[in-house]
Write a structure and sequence with these properties.
The protein is built from one helix and nine strands. By secondary structure, the protein is mainly beta. The strands form two sheets. The protein has a five-stranded mixed beta sheet with strand order 2-9-8-4-6, with no helix packed on it. Strand 8 and strand 9 form a beta hairpin. It is elongated.
Length: 139
């Protein structure tokens, strides 16, 4: 009887220990959710020539990393098309900003990796559109 009581007490201690550390999963304490918000952005510039050069004057877009485990690595697959303000983010509210350089791209891809190498991607499209003749003022 004493042996059975010791087994039950031991099992209870293990159960309490696992519950206090997050349940004993392989990534205890981490959020299983991992994403970037927004996960896509699109900038359309009006251009007679079809050039995206004026996109370089656009306001930066702010992206927020949600979940995962810091530190986060931010990998810009096309640095000629987008300027990303940092290559690593940490802290309670990790964010990064992106600004187009003036090149067209459909899409440019940014990959964010967390401490456990889980990935989230952002697609950033920059395109040019010719002005509509009906709305263009006559010269």
């Amino acid at each position: 009887m004493l042996k059975k009581t010791a087994q039950v007490a031991g099992s209870l201690v293990v159960a309490i220990g696992l519950a206090s550390c997050g349940g004993g999963g392989d990534i205890a304490g981490d959020s299983t959710e991992f994403s970037v918000s927004p996960d896509e952005a699109k900038l359309t510039v009006i251009s007679e020539t079809g050039s995206c050069a004026s996109a370089a004057n656009a306001d930066p877009t702010v992206f927020t990393i949600i979940g995962g485990q810091a530190p986060f690595r931010i990998v810009n697959a096309n640095p000629g098309g987008l300027i990303v303000d940092k290559t690593e983010a940490t802290g309670k509210d990790p964010k990064f900003t992106v600004r187009p350089t003036g090149q067209c791209g459909d899409p440019f891809v940014i990959t964010v990796l967390d401490y456990h190498s889980r990935t989230a991607t952002v697609e950033f499209t920059v395109e040019a559109e010719k002005p509509d003749e009906e709305t263009t003022p006559a010269e």
